[in-house]
Amino acid sequence: MNHFLDISSVDNLQAWMPEIASLKKEPLQYAALGKGKTLGMLFFNSSLRTRLSTQKAAQNLGMQTMIMNVQEDAWGLSFEDGVVMNTSSAEHIKEAAAVLSGYCDALAVRAFPSLTDKAADMQERILNGFKKYATVPIVNMESAMGHPLQGLTDAFTIWEQQKTERPKVVLSWAPHIKPLPQSVPNSFVLAMQAMPVDLVICNPVGYNLNPDLVGDTPVIHDQEAAFAGADFVYAKSWSAFEPYGTLPMVKGNWQIDQHKMKLTNQAKFMHCLPVRRNVVVSDAVLDSEASIVISQAHNRTYSAQLVIQKLLKHGME
Ligand code: CP
Q1: What homologous superfamily is domain 150-296 in, according to CATH?
Q2: For the segment 193-225, what is each residue's pLDDT rounded down to a tens digit?
Q3: Pocket residues for ligand 1 (CB within 6 Å)?
Q4: Pocket test for ligand 1, best of 45, 50, 236 (most atoms within 8 A of CB)
Q5: pTM of the shown model
Q6: Which of 36, 72, 77, 198 is the most buried (most CB within 10 A)?
């Protein structure tokens, strides 16, 4: 029984890069692999890219897809063992996951964090509930603490566009109007730590990511200093890890603009999207030739395709 839950479960991320490139060149080369098989896609939260790129990936492999917006269309789910279900939830994950496993050959799940209960979010209650009670492989389409399909795509996008053997990659916090999860930056950091790049994280004081995940990766609180000589700038907003889910006061302007991009080594600009124009990044940067966000989003299909293909062929481990 194998799953794709976390980027750190990939043994040799670099070795996956030429495989994704091959799928990008010839997306239908394994069109017979998934014939007669079904990918179930369960969304507890909104999505544009993850939903359609994963569906496209499954279709490229010859699979059929079943998609459900769980919060709107399904019964409310309970996740706790031994719970007395006398409130609004009508179905337990035990039955739901087992039933879905009979309809589908793999299940892909999107479930964001609460951002109010760190311990519960770190337990990945929904994702791990499916892992525990389903009898088919589970794919993480963004959970409380990780977005491995995005991290895989980001690693591939840098790999295919890099002009030097060991590019400098800067993950920069950027402003937002509301607290956002740490899932994308978490998976980006893990992906970059597994690739031959020099990663620097820059964020305001108070916005350090989970120290267990950051490890030895340098963290700088001066955005302009971090941008000096960068080959890639990856912008993302996230809320504080401590106090969890908050937006501590930020000094200065952290929006990515042309002035800051000029400090780089003609860096490419990346963002997972959706992005708020002129909040996270200026129009001038997003619309410039340096911006590779559309190509990055298109690459989502091929990275998802490799994940599903590996689940179908060999399993993940
Ligand atoms: N980047 C990303 O996951 O986009 P969606 O939220 O639209 O799926």
Answers
A1: Aspartate/ornithine carbamoyltransferase (3.40.50.1370)
A2: 999 999 999 999 999 999 999 999 999 999 999
A3: 47-50, 142, 150, 272-274
A4: 50
A5: 0.97
A6: 77
